[in-house]
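Reopening this one. Same input as before:
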Amino acid sequence: MRSGVDAVGGVPYNDRDSREHLEFVFRLAEEWGKPIDLHLDFSDDPGTMAIADVVELTKSFGMQNRVAVGHLTALGSAEPETAQRLANDMAEAGISVFALPATDLYLNGRGDAARPRRGLAPVRTLLDAGVNVCFGTNNMRNAFTPFGTGDPLDIGLLLAQTAYMGSREDAAVVGMCTERAAEALRMTDYGIKSRIGCRACAYRRRGLRRANALLYDRPRERKVWRNGIKL
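Same output, byte for byte:
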């Protein structure tokens, strides 16, 4: 912490006592004034979920809008009423969720001999509840995620297909790796934008009229600006 880290991380499902692990993470974050990033509930078993503890601790430590969780796949196997209730609680606590489809689809559902579960966070339920949902790669070309190039547009397309995001409203999925991800990181003026004072990443492609076309077409010819400088 003294070296200047940006956030306090945690992986409670790899510890013997999930609650004790989480309390330690929250105390450390409070002491150093840092946000929290958790790998959480990475399984198909909703009976092992710790997200309710995270919601409780977020509120009791006053960490609203400063906590992000990745995976949350166990919630995708929960009963709809349970998933909806917890999604509402997360929205109230300002907890962001990172869906990690390349890893989660590859590893989850393996224990199901029939009707294997998809093994994703319930993205649509979370979005409808008002949760800030983002997506990322998690890993790349290792034992957990053996495929991929690290291209966020590939991950976005994978998530859109596997989370049944085919409606006009769902087309905003591209914002989940731009503005929504920036919100989770507490960054301002960031995303696929073009305006004075925006220090963002801005993508441009000849003939591109809508940001969503980035996801649909996944163009090879891309231009990226940051702080007004073409990279």
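So the earlier flakiness isn't reproducible anymore. For the record, The domain at 8-187 is CATH 3.20.20.140 (TIM Barrel).
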